[in-house]
Design brief:
With about 210 residues, the protein is α/β, with parallel strands linked by helices. It has one domain (about 15-205): Vaccinia Virus protein VP39 (Rossmann fold, 3-Layer(aba) Sandwich). The chain is about 40% helix and about 25% strand. The chain is built from 7 helices and 7 strands. It has a 7-stranded mixed sheet, sandwiched between helices. The longest helix has 19 residues, at about 15-30. About 40% of the residues are buried. The structure holds S-adenosylmethionine. S-adenosylmethionine binds near residues 7, 22, 107 and 112.
């Protein structure tokens, strides 16, 4: 757990600042894996809980973990009793094997230190039931499309520098992004959806190694 919370100053404005870029990605992710009532869902690095809200609406049983107390406070205000929220790191999840129908993480992996990324992916796979879904959403470093791609890429680099996560962004890029991580974790990619003009991709990952 970091000594200081890098999100303590920006949690209050996070949604206003970032959600306009994220909303389209979230909609596509919900199309890729439509939530079913009663599903056990876990969001690793749930932040302010914006990504969990549609799963609450779909009558899923909703869980979120995050290392930022400030972000979790926002999530708690948004989701109230509808979500089980815990202040913990994603690479040591306090859940049984095969517990979840869907385990997701969005725009978190590039922030996780290089040495903790593979353990985190393996941990996510451990708690996903066989035949369940693992959704990894993060920056993609291939070619860009239209006006959105270069615009979102430039904005992302500025935001990552400003927020102090740029070294993580660079190491994530250098280690092959999500495809590199999935390979190093001994997992496989079932499906890929490129969004945000190519700056972000949604990966459906097989939760068995
Ligand atoms: C860019 S925000 C994304 C938040 C949310 N997933 C969303 O899509 O709006 C990254 C979040 O990941 C959290 N985070 C970073 N490293 C983490 C880790 N090792 N375990 C759990 N959460 C982590 C941060 O505290 C932050 O809330």
């Amino acid at each position: 757990m970091p000594n200081t919370d890098p999100y303590r100053r920006i949690a209050g404005v996070y949604d206003r600042l970032i959600e306009p870029m994220q909303a389209g990605v979230r909609r596509v992710a919900l199309d890729v894996v439509p939530p079913q009532p009663g599903w056990q869902v876990l969001d690793v690095g749930c932040g302010t809980g914006t990504g969990l809200a549609p799963y609450v609406e779909a009558a899923c049983r909703v869980n979120g973990v995050d290392v930022s107390a400030a972000m979790l406070q926002k999530a708690s205000a948004r989701l109230g009793d509808h979500a089980n929220l815990q202040l913990i790191e994603g690479d040591a999840l306090p859940f049984d094997d095969d517990h979840f129908d869907l385990v997701t993480t969005s725009m978190v992996l590039h922030e996780v230190p290089l040495e903790a990324r593979v353990p985190l992916a393996i941990e996510m796979a451990r708690v996903t039931r066989p035949g369940g879904w693992m959704l990894l959403i993060d920056f993609r470093f291939g070619s860009l499309r239209g006006w959105k791609g270069p615009t979102f890429r430039a904005l992302s680099v500025v935001i990552e520098r400003f927020s102090g996560h740029y070294s993580g962004y660079k190491s994530f890029k250098g280690s092959g992004g999500v495809p590199g991580l999935v390979e190093n974790a001994g997992l496989g990619i079932d499906q890929k959806k490129i969004v945000a003009g190519g700056n972000v991709a949604i990966y459906v990952v097989t939760p068995t190694s």
